[in-house]
Amino acid sequence: MNYYLAVDIGASSGRHIVGWTENGKRKTREVYRFPNGVESADGHLVWNMDALTAHVRRGIEEAKAQFGNIRSLSVDTWGVDYVLLKGEEEILPCFAYRDARTQRVIPGVHEKLPFAELYRRTGIQFQPFNTVYQLCDDLARGRLEEATDFLMIPEYLLWKLCGVRAHEYTNATTGGMVSAVTGEYDPKIIEALGLPQHLFHPLQRPGAVIGEYEGIKCVLCATHDTGSAVEGIPMEENAPYISSGTWSLLGVKTERPLTDEASERANWSNEGGVGYNRYQKNIMGMWLVNRLRDELCPEKPWSEITAEAEADSFDGTVDANAETFLAPQSMKAAFDEALQERPRTAAGYFRCAYRSLALSYRQAVRELEHNSGKKYDRIYIVGGGAKNAFLNRLTEETTEKKVIALPIEATALGNLKIQTEEDR
Fold first, then answer.
1. Which of 133, 107, 123, 358 is nearest to 262 (CA)?
2. What is the extent of the structural domain holding 209?
3. Torsion angle defined by CA atoms of residues 205, 159, 32 and 231, in that order, rounded to the nearest 10 degrees
4. Does residue 211 sit in the same domain as residue 260?
5. pTM listed for this prediction
6. Active site (catalytic) residues
7. Residue 206 exposed, middle or buried by CB count within 10 Å (0-12, 13-18, 19+)
8. Consecutive 10-residue runs of the chain (424 residues): their mean pLDDT?
9. Is the separation of the CB atoms in 52 and 59 below 8 Å?
10. Which of 223, 255, 274 is a domain's end point?
């Protein structure tokens, strides 16, 4: 029996899932789970890379203890963030994308390269945390003076395992520097912004074997978790998807990037897929309700929270994608500021968040159909948010599309799928 290990790390938790084929069917088992989250250090939000690395290793040991011989493994995480290297040493801290450090450099970036030109070249939506802005902040701080390389988070973790530095395509596309035409880093962007050219290497595609860790092959999956999630969705046809987690990523597979003015104006992204383009949009996602729960009722089960939200009568909504919700000190205060009338109950805040997310989905679906020139009759929802029957119902009502909710570990399944396809 061949066993494969998917290490799937999100912004709030990570999990190790072993997969194998038995009687022609895919089987999986979660063998290790650990918490994750940003930490505060010197006024910034950062990732604890030592803790992440230690958890990755512990999970591998647990997989070996339960299954014996693991044939291969791969790691996927969120996009845009990276670790700078000076030879074999890390240049820390590793900043988290919710940190506000890029705000000071964004105007200067757009003076050198207007966003319209960036979008035309890359097709990547504007987000203040895009890798291009983070690297320009590092440049301004002098952090690139001794940097010999930078590795996106999953490629960094794979380097810590097998000692090989890889630069994977799907994850690189999230940062706003990869050409929508060539699928490689765009040298004109790098030159215009004055970034060190030696940091940018040829990109490898999902499925590449890059090394070994204790006899286990280290493989590149689609290391951006949404890229793996889309691979893991058992679609009957090419339909829109929502990968519903800390972020909600709503999109559809297309043959080529759409970099027209309508896509730029609506802030749609074109990210790398496994042999296709992912035309998608970031929506704030479960971050809203997770943070509300932390403040309002941290001990209450989600089943009670959603039931009370569904029964509540508060009908106010907010723009779920407003920047004020990206990293507020108080999520409740951010809602209070955005609403003309405040909810009287905690349930009202959750109801507001769920209804606001559903309205964001409706707007995104309308933009998707307009920009692609295609109509769709269903939406596939995967990830943790697919378990939320109330939000699924709201989504079906607002979008007028049939919702197919698949409460599966789609990201881990996609990660495993790429490993096993490489092994054939």
1. 123
2. 4-223
3. -10
4. no
5. 0.92
6. 225
7. buried
8. 96 95 93 96 97 98 97 98 98 97 98 98 97 98 98 98 98 98 98 98 97 98 96 94 94 97 96 97 95 97 98 97 94 97 97 98 97 96 94 98 93 96 62
9. no
10. 223
